[in-house]
Amino acid sequence: MKQTKKLQVNKLKKYFQVGKDETLKAVDDVSFDVIEGETFGLVGESGCGKSTIGRTIMGLYDRTAGEVVFNEKNVHELKDTETFDFHRSMQMIFQDPYASLNPRSTVKEIISEPMEIHGLYPDKKERLDRVYQLLEEVGLSRDHANRYPHEFSGGQRQRIGIARALALDPEFIIADEPISALDVSVQAQVVNLLRKLQKEKGLTYLFIAHDLSMVKHISDRIGVMYLGNMVELTKASDLYKRPLHPYTQALLSAIPIPDPDVEEGRERMILEGELPSPINPPSGCVFRTRCPFAMEACAKIDPVWQEIEENHYVACHLYNEDIKNKTPIKETVLH
Ligand code: SF4
After folding, report:
1. How do strand 90-93 and strand 73-74 relate by DSSP bridges?
2. 167 and 230 together in one domain
3. pTM for the whole thing?
4. Which residues line ligand 1 (CB under 6 A)?
5. Residue range 2-41, pLDDT digits in tens
6. Whose CA is nearest to atom 6 of ligand 1?
7. Ligand 1, atom 3: nearest CA belongs to which residue?
8. How many whole angstroms separate alpha carbon 132 and alpha carbon 129?
9. How far apart are CA 218 and CA 236, in angstroms?
10. pLDDT tens across 186-224, in order?
């Protein structure tokens, strides 16, 4: 079956100038594609640049270098009318369902607003019917239309945010940590709702999250980010079966296993130290200050992004035989 690339992120850099002479490298040379109809999970600790990527893809931030191509058009070079269409095709769901909903607007007004801006359903009655339909699609009811956001639970508010994102009938949704602020039981419900909607409407998702536990239930492929860099990318099932990058291994080892016998005998890989500042990132491999396998070469040479197994990419010297064989592995972590 032919796979259509819905979104292409090519060598994207997003730097912020902080102070007079300092540059924060939020996203540093990141590339990946999102295939039509798939869910691409983008995972990493807060501060790794994943949300900045989401906002740069949406055109909310200009890029420093590289390009974002959506439906074969460069997002940062769109003309006015094309920008309008682009914003209809790509929508965003935000992390905090309370902060992202106007507390003074009713649910009906919140969901209608994008339709009004884009001139859809000019007939009021038709627009209201569309609001009712959207509410039902996300598991709420038409009785909720005249209520205000504070009258809802966190999970219900996120459903309202999803209904608003669907109002323009988009093709692509960037879900920026859509479940992080919710209780675990509610997280699964929202993930199931997103999967159902994807099936029904043929949506493509970029799903951003800070840990791997829930992402595996929704993603087809996953990219792991660390300090503005993509460090590993592969199919979700392969990432869980055989994580290659030490950072991915640490993220996976942090997920509790529901079987107490397995959990008890399991060795955890605990990451030491804090995430370094993206203003002054470590030389060579940015993960080297926390990596238990760091070698001398890791401080001197940038790891190369390479395909180690079919469709399984990683940036780590452990998979570069030349470097690995010449450089003894240090027992202590380099600083
Ligand atoms: Fe660890 Fe070196 Fe691989 Fe970086 S390149 S993840 S420091 S082994």
Report:
1. unpaired
2. yes
3. 0.92
4. 245-246, 285, 287-288, 291, 293-295, 298, 303, 316-318
5. 789 999 999 999 999 998 889 999 999 999 999 999 999 9
6. 316
7. 316
8. 5
9. 9
10. 999 999 999 999 999 999 999 999 888 888 889 999 999
